[in-house]
Write a structure and sequence with these properties.
8 strands, about 0% helix, Immunoglobulin-like
């Protein structure tokens, strides 16, 4: 067992039992987007964090329990917001299509 989610980011060295993980991939027309940013907004819409996607469109946040919004910004694409719920001990996998 490699410790990675199928087709996603590797989880080697991460204790998934004590983390609330939000991760996923940004795509456009079925292909990974290599230039984009994903923002993590709290329940009230306040900015919490931002990460650039990898060359394969992947991103990951370590969040607290609760409801969050992922805001995706990419050149030439409309902004996309996705609601997600994070919980300690689980991985919220999110696919974001632009």
């Amino acid at each position: 067992m490699c410790g990675a989610t199928e087709g996603g980011l590797p989880l080697d060295g991460i204790n998934t039992k004590i983390e609330a993980i939000i991760q996923g991939q940004v795509t456009k027309d079925g292909s990974p987007v290599g230039v984009a940013y994903v923002r993590l907004l709290d329940k009230s819409g306040e900015f919490t964090a931002e990460v650039p996607v990898s060359a394969t469109g992947h991103f990951r946040f370590f969040a607290g329990d609760g409801e969050w919004t992922l805001r995706t910004l990419a050149p030439g694409a409309d902004t996309v917001d996705r609601k997600v719920v994070a919980a300690v001990g689980s991985i919220a996998e999110v696919e974001i299509a632009l």
